[in-house]
Amino acid sequence: MIYMVLAYMVIWAAIFVFLLSMIQRQAHLQREIAALKELAQEREAGRCPELVEGR
Amino acid sequence: MRVSDRVLTVLTVVVGLAVLAAVWGALRAAPAAAGLTPDETFAQRIIYFHVPSAWLSMLAFGVTMLASIVYLAAGQRRWDSLAVSSAEIGIVFTLAATASGSAWAKPAWNTWWTWDPRLTTYTIVFLLYVAYFMLRSAMDDPARRARFAAVYGIFAFLSVPITFFSIRWWRTIHPVLIDVEAKSFGLSRGMLPIFFFCLAVFSLLYVVLLWHRFRLEQTREQVEALKEQMGH
Question: Which terminal residue of chain B has fewer beta carbons within 10 Å of its beta carbon, N or C?
Fold first, then answer.
C-alpha cells in the first residue's frame, strides 16, 4: 500500500507545487505592475511642472 | 468580472470536484486486480493516475508543437505564449508520470528504475523539454526567442511518438495497455469506466491549467511591454 500512497502523493505534490509557483509568479507580476504604475504616475507628476515652466 | 474569468472559475471548481471523484473511483470504486500480491494489487491502482499523467504530458507537448507551427506561420505572440505554457505543464506531468511509475515499478519489477526503452525515451523527452526552457532563457529578444523556441518545439515533439511506440517497437518489460494489433486493452471490463473517467478528468485538468498558465504568460508580456515603454 505504501507504494500506492507514495505515487499519489508524488502526483499531487507535482500539481500543488506547479499551482503554488503560478500563484507566486502572478503575485510577483501584480507587484511589478503596481510598481510600474506608481513610477509612471511619479514621472507624470514630475513632468507637469516642466510643462508649466515651458509655457 | 469578465465572462471568461467566470467560465474559468466555474471550470476550476468543476475540475477540482472531478479530480476528487477520480480519486474515489481509482481507490475505492475500481475493482482490485486479480492474481497479484497484496503490494502489487494496491500498486496497480496507480495506473488510474499514472497513465492519465503520461497522456496529459504528451498532449501538452503536442499542443506546444501545434502552437509553434501556428506561431511560425502567423507570427502572433500569443501562439508562443500558448506553446511555452503548454510545455511547462508537460514537464510537470512528465515528472508526475515518471515518479508514479517508479513507485509502481518497485513492487512490480522489484526496482525503482531500469533503463527500459519506455523509461529511457521518456527521460529523453523530459530532458529535451528542459532544454526548451534553457534555450528560451538564453535569449533576451522576445521575437528571436519565440522563433528559435518554435523551431525547437516542433523538432522536440518527434521524441513523443517514439516514446509512445517504444514499447511496441522494442523488447520491453513495460506493460502495453493499448494493444493495437489485438485491438484490446490491458485492463478488465470493470476497470475501464474508471480508467476512461480519469483520462477525461486529466484532459479537463489540462485545459484548466493551460488557461491559468496562459493568462499568467500574458500578464508577464504586459509587464515586459510596460517596462519597454518606460525605457527599463
Answer: N
Question: How high is the ipTM of this complex?
Answer: 0.76
- Between A7, A14, A26, which is nearest B216 by CB? A26
What's the grid cell of residue B187? Answer: 485492463
With an 8 Å Cβ cutoff, are A15 and B212 in contact?
no
B227 touches chain A (CB under 8 A): yes
Phi, psi at B188, each rounded to 5°: -75, 165
Could you tell me if residue A47 is inside a domain?
yes
Domain B3-229 has CATH 1.20.58: no
Could you tell me the three cell numbers for B54?
503520461
Nearest residue to B54 (alpha-carbon basis) of B24, B99, B11: B99
Give per-residue pLDDT as tens, B76-97: 999 999 999 999 999 999 999 9
Query: pLDDT digit string (tens) for A21-42?
Result: 988 998 899 899 888 888 888 8
Residue B29 per-residue DSSP state:
I
Query: How many domains, chain A?
Result: 1
